[in-house]
Design goal:
Elements lengths: L13 H38 L19 E2 L3 E2 L22 H16 L3 H24 L4 H22 L2 H24 L6 H17 L1 H24 L12 H14 L3
Antiparallel strand pairs: 1-2
Helix pairs in contact: 1-2, 1-3, 2-3, 2-8, 3-4, 3-8, 4-5, 4-6, 5-6, 6-7, 6-8, 7-8
Length: about 270
């Protein structure tokens, strides 16, 4: 007797079963990474406090209010803030609003775990996210993207994707990722040279890691993530203009919008 054709949604279809199994397994991982993100975000708060200084100044070594030590001898980071976002010594508010860094890290890592597979690609995306969260807060505070975060962001993202390519034989994806990262960085570098008021060299360095991750998922994802960042920044700037809180000549931090647009595109992509 001839076998009956299986429908697209047949639960006994191997591909359909594998997709359902992968989806079922991703949610416990997403919950675990979200919880880990809370702890990681607490540590990242100290990174934000230390590096949110004007360009050319050394990293902040103590609480802005009382000078309580943040950088230990040997420049080792200490957690200067209690979970509520206050200095452990003087209880002054330190860094971004309470739980803002922690929750944003947790949410982002949880969403990435639910959407991105396989594990080594997820590791690359999480590495990028852990660097991108403090970069967004620092850029929002002092309009700079320090090399201390942009360089490790690119190196770590590229290294994890290289491991993913070696493990799965996806060398075409790795070549595309490398080319996409370099192309996006070159584009932002050109914009920085032409118009310093629009973007800076820090944005170009950040674009290298964002472009690498986006291009791994495909050229359409790279284009979508890039334009999403432009649209988010334009909407924010237009809103400030309508509220008369800025002028056409005033520069707004672009890094947070680059990061938001890139991760929105990644979460919408199919891996």
């Amino acid at each position: 007797m001839a076998a009956l054709p299986r429908s697209h949604g047949d639960p006994y279809d191997i591909g359909h079963f594998a997709a359902n199994k992968r989806s079922a397994m991703s949610w416990p991982l997403a919950a675990a990474l979200a919880l880990a993100g809370l702890a990681i975000g607490w540590c990242l708060r100290t990174v934000v406090v230390c590096l949110a200084v004007p360009a050319g100044e050394p990293a902040r070594a103590g609480c802005p209010a009382c000078g309580h030590e943040i950088l230990a001898p040997g420049r080792r980071l200490r957690s200067a803030a209690a979970p509520g976002g206050r200095c452990r010594a003087c209880r002054a508010r330190i860094g971004p609003p309470p739980l803002a860094v922690e929750v944003s890290t947790a949410v982002l890592l949880g969403l990435l775990a639910a959407r991105i597979h396989p594990g080594l690609v997820l590791a690359a995306a999480c590495w990028l996210a852990i660097a991108a969260v403090p970069l967004a807060w620092i850029d929002a505070a002092v309009q700079r993207l320090p090399d201390a975060l942009t360089v490790p962001a690119y190196a770590g993202t590229a290294a994890w994707l290289l491991l993913a390519a070696a493990a799965g034989g996806h060398w075409h994806s790795m070549i595309r990722a490398a080319a996409g990262g370099l192309a996006l960085a070159a584009g932002y570098a050109a914009l920085a040279v032409v118009s310093r008021s629009a973007v800076g060299l820090g944005d170009a360095k950040l674009a290298a890691s964002l472009g690498t991750m986006l291009a791994w998922a495909g050229w359409p994802v790279l284009v979508a993530g890039t334009f999403a960042g432009f649209l988010l920044a334009a909407g924010y700037g237009l809103g400030l203009l309508l509220l008369r809180r800025t002028s056409w000549r005033q520069r707004i931090p672009y890094g947070p919008f680059m990061i938001a647009g890139a991760f929105l595109a990644l979460l919408a992509a199919s891996f």
